[in-house]
Amino acid sequence: MDITTFLGIIAGIVLVGTAIFMGGALRTFYDLPSVLITIGGTIASTLVNFPFSEIKSVLRITRVAFTERVEDPTVVISEIIGFAEKARREGLLALENSLDYVEDDFLRRGLQLVVDATEPELIREILENDIACSEERHKAGRQIYQAMATYAPAFGMIGTLIGLIQMLRNINDPSSIGPGMATALITTFYGAMLAYLVFMPIAGKLALRSEKESLLRQIMLEGVLAIQSGDNPRIVEEKLRAYLPPAMRANINYRRPAVMDYEGQAQGQGY
Questions:
Q1: Within this chain, do residues 40 and 80 fall inside the same structural domain, yes or no?
Q2: What is the DSSP string of 160-182?
Q3: Each residue of 105-143: pLDDT tens digit?
Q4: pTM of the full predicted structure?
Protein backbone atom coordinates (compact mmCIF):
# COMPACT_ATOMS: atom_id res chain seq x y z
CA MET A 1 0.00 0.00 0.00
CA ASP A 2 1.23 3.47 -0.89
CA ILE A 3 0.57 5.40 2.31
CA THR A 4 1.69 8.72 0.81
CA THR A 5 -1.53 8.99 -1.23
CA PHE A 6 -3.65 8.58 1.90
CA LEU A 7 -1.47 10.92 3.91
CA GLY A 8 -1.51 13.59 1.23
CA ILE A 9 -5.28 13.70 0.90
CA ILE A 10 -5.91 13.46 4.64
CA ALA A 11 -3.26 16.08 5.42
CA GLY A 12 -4.80 18.46 2.88
CA ILE A 13 -8.28 18.04 4.34
CA VAL A 14 -7.03 18.42 7.92
CA LEU A 15 -4.96 21.53 7.18
CA VAL A 16 -7.73 23.25 5.24
CA GLY A 17 -10.27 22.24 7.89
CA THR A 18 -8.03 23.59 10.65
CA ALA A 19 -7.62 26.89 8.84
CA ILE A 20 -11.41 27.15 8.43
CA PHE A 21 -12.01 26.30 12.08
CA MET A 22 -9.54 28.97 13.20
CA GLY A 23 -11.51 31.56 11.26
CA GLY A 24 -15.01 30.41 12.11
CA ALA A 25 -17.34 27.44 12.25
CA LEU A 26 -16.80 24.44 9.98
CA ARG A 27 -20.56 24.15 9.58
CA THR A 28 -20.51 27.36 7.57
CA PHE A 29 -18.75 25.52 4.76
CA TYR A 30 -21.36 22.80 4.45
CA ASP A 31 -24.11 23.31 1.91
CA LEU A 32 -26.01 20.32 0.49
CA PRO A 33 -27.17 22.01 -2.75
CA SER A 34 -23.55 22.98 -3.47
CA VAL A 35 -22.45 19.38 -2.91
CA LEU A 36 -25.12 18.13 -5.30
CA ILE A 37 -24.17 20.63 -7.98
CA THR A 38 -20.41 20.10 -7.77
CA ILE A 39 -20.19 16.34 -7.26
CA GLY A 40 -23.34 15.46 -9.18
CA GLY A 41 -22.39 17.64 -12.12
CA THR A 42 -18.87 16.23 -12.23
CA ILE A 43 -20.15 12.66 -12.24
CA ALA A 44 -22.77 13.44 -14.89
CA SER A 45 -20.26 15.05 -17.23
CA THR A 46 -17.86 12.15 -16.75
CA LEU A 47 -20.63 9.72 -17.71
CA VAL A 48 -21.30 11.74 -20.85
CA ASN A 49 -17.62 11.92 -21.78
CA PHE A 50 -16.62 8.27 -21.28
CA PRO A 51 -18.25 4.95 -22.23
CA PHE A 52 -19.66 2.87 -19.42
CA SER A 53 -17.03 0.17 -19.99
CA GLU A 54 -14.33 2.64 -18.92
CA ILE A 55 -16.37 4.14 -16.09
CA LYS A 56 -16.69 0.67 -14.54
CA SER A 57 -12.92 0.49 -14.22
CA VAL A 58 -12.68 3.61 -12.02
CA LEU A 59 -12.52 1.64 -8.77
CA ARG A 60 -9.79 -0.63 -10.13
CA ILE A 61 -7.88 2.37 -11.47
CA THR A 62 -8.25 4.17 -8.14
CA ARG A 63 -6.86 1.15 -6.30
CA VAL A 64 -3.70 1.42 -8.40
CA ALA A 65 -3.11 4.94 -7.07
CA PHE A 66 -3.38 3.72 -3.48
CA THR A 67 -1.20 0.62 -3.83
CA GLU A 68 2.48 0.12 -4.59
CA ARG A 69 2.49 -2.70 -7.12
CA VAL A 70 5.58 -2.03 -9.22
CA GLU A 71 8.48 -4.29 -8.35
CA ASP A 72 11.87 -3.03 -7.28
CA PRO A 73 13.91 -2.82 -10.52
CA THR A 74 17.04 -3.97 -8.69
CA VAL A 75 15.27 -7.21 -7.76
CA VAL A 76 14.11 -7.70 -11.34
CA ILE A 77 17.62 -7.10 -12.67
CA SER A 78 19.00 -9.61 -10.19
CA GLU A 79 16.46 -12.16 -11.39
CA ILE A 80 17.30 -11.54 -15.04
CA ILE A 81 21.00 -11.93 -14.32
CA GLY A 82 20.22 -15.27 -12.70
CA PHE A 83 18.45 -16.40 -15.87
CA ALA A 84 21.36 -15.15 -17.98
CA GLU A 85 23.75 -17.24 -15.93
CA LYS A 86 21.56 -20.32 -16.24
CA ALA A 87 21.17 -19.86 -20.00
CA ARG A 88 24.91 -19.39 -20.49
CA ARG A 89 25.76 -22.45 -18.42
CA GLU A 90 23.03 -24.86 -19.55
CA GLY A 91 21.63 -23.37 -22.75
CA LEU A 92 18.49 -21.40 -23.59
CA LEU A 93 16.24 -24.46 -23.49
CA ALA A 94 17.12 -24.95 -19.82
CA LEU A 95 15.13 -21.77 -19.04
CA GLU A 96 11.88 -23.57 -19.82
CA ASN A 97 12.11 -25.50 -16.55
CA SER A 98 12.15 -22.22 -14.63
CA LEU A 99 9.31 -20.36 -16.36
CA ASP A 100 6.66 -21.55 -13.91
CA TYR A 101 8.56 -19.74 -11.14
CA VAL A 102 8.51 -16.36 -12.91
CA GLU A 103 5.77 -14.25 -11.31
CA ASP A 104 5.72 -11.41 -13.84
CA ASP A 105 3.68 -12.31 -16.94
CA PHE A 106 5.64 -9.94 -19.19
CA LEU A 107 9.01 -11.41 -18.26
CA ARG A 108 7.67 -14.95 -18.52
CA ARG A 109 6.34 -14.26 -22.01
CA GLY A 110 9.66 -12.83 -23.09
CA LEU A 111 11.61 -15.81 -21.79
CA GLN A 112 9.13 -18.19 -23.42
CA LEU A 113 9.75 -16.49 -26.75
CA VAL A 114 13.48 -16.97 -26.23
CA VAL A 115 12.98 -20.66 -25.44
CA ASP A 116 10.84 -20.98 -28.59
CA ALA A 117 13.79 -19.65 -30.66
CA THR A 118 11.89 -16.58 -31.83
CA GLU A 119 13.86 -14.06 -33.86
CA PRO A 120 15.17 -11.12 -31.80
CA GLU A 121 13.45 -8.57 -34.04
CA LEU A 122 10.13 -10.32 -33.56
CA ILE A 123 10.61 -10.56 -29.80
CA ARG A 124 11.31 -6.84 -29.63
CA GLU A 125 8.27 -6.07 -31.79
CA ILE A 126 5.94 -8.25 -29.68
CA LEU A 127 7.13 -6.93 -26.32
CA GLU A 128 7.30 -3.29 -27.40
CA ASN A 129 3.74 -3.57 -28.72
CA ASP A 130 2.73 -4.99 -25.33
CA ILE A 131 4.34 -2.02 -23.58
CA ALA A 132 2.68 0.48 -25.91
CA CYS A 133 -0.78 -1.08 -25.47
CA SER A 134 -0.33 -1.11 -21.69
CA GLU A 135 0.59 2.57 -21.72
CA GLU A 136 -2.53 3.35 -23.75
CA ARG A 137 -4.72 1.53 -21.23
CA HIS A 138 -3.11 3.44 -18.39
CA LYS A 139 -3.59 6.69 -20.28
CA ALA A 140 -7.30 5.97 -20.68
CA GLY A 141 -7.60 5.48 -16.92
CA ARG A 142 -5.78 8.73 -16.18
CA GLN A 143 -8.01 10.64 -18.56
CA ILE A 144 -11.03 9.93 -16.37
CA TYR A 145 -9.46 11.68 -13.40
CA GLN A 146 -8.04 14.45 -15.56
CA ALA A 147 -11.52 15.07 -16.95
CA MET A 148 -13.05 15.16 -13.47
CA ALA A 149 -10.34 17.63 -12.42
CA THR A 150 -11.53 19.85 -15.27
CA TYR A 151 -15.26 19.45 -14.62
CA ALA A 152 -15.22 19.97 -10.84
CA PRO A 153 -14.11 23.65 -10.84
CA ALA A 154 -16.44 24.34 -13.78
CA PHE A 155 -19.46 23.02 -11.89
CA GLY A 156 -18.24 24.89 -8.84
CA MET A 157 -18.47 28.07 -10.89
CA ILE A 158 -21.91 27.05 -12.20
CA GLY A 159 -23.05 26.60 -8.61
CA THR A 160 -21.69 30.03 -7.77
CA LEU A 161 -23.64 31.57 -10.65
CA ILE A 162 -26.80 29.82 -9.50
CA GLY A 163 -26.26 31.14 -5.98
CA LEU A 164 -25.66 34.69 -7.24
CA ILE A 165 -28.81 34.62 -9.31
CA GLN A 166 -30.83 33.45 -6.32
CA MET A 167 -29.17 36.10 -4.15
CA LEU A 168 -29.94 38.90 -6.60
CA ARG A 169 -33.60 37.95 -6.56
CA ASN A 170 -33.61 39.00 -2.89
CA ILE A 171 -31.44 42.05 -3.34
CA ASN A 172 -34.09 44.23 -1.71
CA ASP A 173 -33.22 42.48 1.55
CA PRO A 174 -29.66 43.70 2.40
CA SER A 175 -29.35 41.24 5.29
CA SER A 176 -29.51 38.31 2.88
CA ILE A 177 -26.71 39.48 0.58
CA GLY A 178 -23.79 38.47 2.82
CA PRO A 179 -24.96 34.93 3.63
CA GLY A 180 -26.15 34.48 0.06
CA MET A 181 -22.77 35.44 -1.35
CA ALA A 182 -21.00 33.06 1.04
CA THR A 183 -23.26 30.20 0.02
CA ALA A 184 -22.73 30.99 -3.66
CA LEU A 185 -18.95 30.83 -3.29
CA ILE A 186 -18.97 27.49 -1.46
CA THR A 187 -19.49 25.58 -4.71
CA THR A 188 -16.31 27.11 -6.13
CA PHE A 189 -14.52 26.01 -2.97
CA TYR A 190 -15.82 22.44 -3.35
CA GLY A 191 -14.81 22.31 -6.99
CA ALA A 192 -11.29 23.55 -6.33
CA MET A 193 -10.76 21.15 -3.43
CA LEU A 194 -11.92 18.15 -5.45
CA ALA A 195 -9.85 19.09 -8.48
CA TYR A 196 -6.57 20.06 -6.83
CA LEU A 197 -6.55 17.81 -3.77
CA VAL A 198 -8.11 14.63 -5.16
CA PHE A 199 -8.56 14.30 -8.92
CA MET A 200 -5.39 15.90 -10.30
CA PRO A 201 -3.05 14.33 -7.70
CA ILE A 202 -4.52 10.88 -8.36
CA ALA A 203 -4.08 11.39 -12.10
CA GLY A 204 -0.47 12.38 -11.45
CA LYS A 205 0.09 9.31 -9.26
CA LEU A 206 -1.34 7.07 -11.99
CA ALA A 207 1.02 8.65 -14.52
CA LEU A 208 3.95 7.98 -12.22
CA ARG A 209 2.87 4.35 -11.77
CA SER A 210 2.65 3.95 -15.55
CA GLU A 211 6.13 5.41 -16.07
CA LYS A 212 7.63 3.07 -13.50
CA GLU A 213 5.93 0.04 -15.00
CA SER A 214 7.04 0.98 -18.51
CA LEU A 215 10.64 1.41 -17.33
CA LEU A 216 10.52 -1.96 -15.59
CA ARG A 217 9.20 -3.65 -18.71
CA GLN A 218 11.84 -1.96 -20.84
CA ILE A 219 14.46 -3.41 -18.49
CA MET A 220 12.87 -6.84 -18.90
CA LEU A 221 12.82 -6.46 -22.68
CA GLU A 222 16.49 -5.58 -22.90
CA GLY A 223 17.35 -8.34 -20.45
CA VAL A 224 15.47 -10.95 -22.47
CA LEU A 225 17.22 -9.89 -25.68
CA ALA A 226 20.61 -9.93 -23.92
CA ILE A 227 19.93 -13.47 -22.67
CA GLN A 228 18.98 -14.58 -26.17
CA SER A 229 22.17 -13.13 -27.63
CA GLY A 230 24.21 -15.15 -25.12
CA ASP A 231 25.77 -12.18 -23.33
CA ASN A 232 27.90 -12.81 -20.28
CA PRO A 233 25.91 -12.21 -17.07
CA ARG A 234 28.28 -9.40 -16.16
CA ILE A 235 27.53 -7.70 -19.48
CA VAL A 236 23.81 -8.22 -18.94
CA GLU A 237 24.13 -6.56 -15.57
CA GLU A 238 26.01 -3.57 -16.97
CA LYS A 239 23.41 -3.12 -19.71
CA LEU A 240 20.51 -3.12 -17.26
CA ARG A 241 22.23 -1.00 -14.61
CA ALA A 242 22.19 1.87 -17.10
CA TYR A 243 18.41 2.14 -16.63
CA LEU A 244 18.78 2.88 -12.93
CA PRO A 245 19.71 6.15 -11.23
CA PRO A 246 23.20 6.08 -9.69
CA ALA A 247 21.81 5.84 -6.16
CA MET A 248 20.05 2.55 -6.98
CA ARG A 249 22.81 0.84 -8.93
CA ALA A 250 24.64 -0.18 -5.78
CA ASN A 251 21.52 -1.96 -4.52
CA ILE A 252 21.62 -4.74 -7.09
CA ASN A 253 21.96 -7.97 -5.18
CA TYR A 254 24.99 -9.83 -6.48
CA ARG A 255 23.67 -12.98 -4.79
CA ARG A 256 20.73 -13.21 -7.11
CA PRO A 257 17.50 -15.05 -6.29
CA ALA A 258 17.69 -18.73 -7.02
CA VAL A 259 16.41 -19.87 -10.40
CA MET A 260 14.41 -23.03 -9.76
CA ASP A 261 14.40 -26.04 -12.02
CA TYR A 262 11.42 -28.34 -12.52
CA GLU A 263 12.37 -30.39 -9.46
CA GLY A 264 12.38 -27.28 -7.26
CA GLN A 265 16.14 -27.40 -6.71
CA ALA A 266 17.97 -24.09 -6.39
CA GLN A 267 20.03 -23.06 -9.37
CA GLY A 268 22.16 -20.09 -10.30
CA GLN A 269 23.47 -18.67 -7.03
CA GLY A 270 26.56 -17.10 -8.58
CA TYR A 271 28.56 -16.64 -11.71
A1: yes
A2: HHHHHHHHHTTTT-GGGHHHHHH
A3: 999 999 999 999 899 999 999 999 999 998 888 888 889
A4: 0.79
